[in-house]
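Sorry, explain these tokens?

***
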Amino acid sequence: MHLAILVTNTDESAFAQRHPKDGEKFPAMLHAVRPDWRFSVWQVKDGDFPATLAGLDGAILTGSPASVHDDAPWIARLMDLIREMDARGLPMFGACFGHQAIALALGGAVGRNPNGYVHGLTHSRLTHRAPWMSDLPDPLRLYGSHVEQVTRLPEGTWPVASSEDCPIAGFVKEARIFTTQHHPEMTPGFIAALTDEMADYLGPDVTARARASLGEPADSLAFATSVARFFEAASSPGS
């Protein structure tokens, strides 16, 4: 399996330099369950896009502090690429910003969370189980950090997860698209450090809730397995 990592994370702060980047986190996540898979990384947030989709079995779109509504040339170009990949049937997995970008590019809508910032360990109910999700626990625990969310799904897609703070926490389209609003690539150490880094921005209440939530483990390995199974199902004959 050869997957593209399309990095949308615009954070180049000193904090970001002290931690693995998304071009490392997502391969590490999947190498934990599929050690022989190959990855090619493009920094699409810098205008670095694949010259061709040939030879790729799928694409992963990462999270970002950017908004999908930002007026940035790379975001408009990414929207075009998402529509091209969808038209060609190239499997896509999107996390956080990637989840929102896929929804918006294909005709859905994204808006601000009415209850403000969601940060820390999240609990989502599975509202539909695609075949590759059969072994996921319910509720599903994943780390999250977002202040926008998908408010309307594109036609031909189905929601797969929902939480109190995020009604559309993930969706699928046939065996070609799989998304989550959350961050399966984040490790316990990283989300703890990120919470400390964002404390002033999040405010005392959100920060306190986030820190309290981190005493519980995330279902990261189980979710990584579901992402691997998604790409395997998408590449199987007749999918």
In short: The chain has one domain: 2-235. The helical segments are 14-17, 22-31, 73-88, 97-105, 188-202, 204-213, 220-235. The CA atoms of residues 26 and 185 lie 6 Å apart.
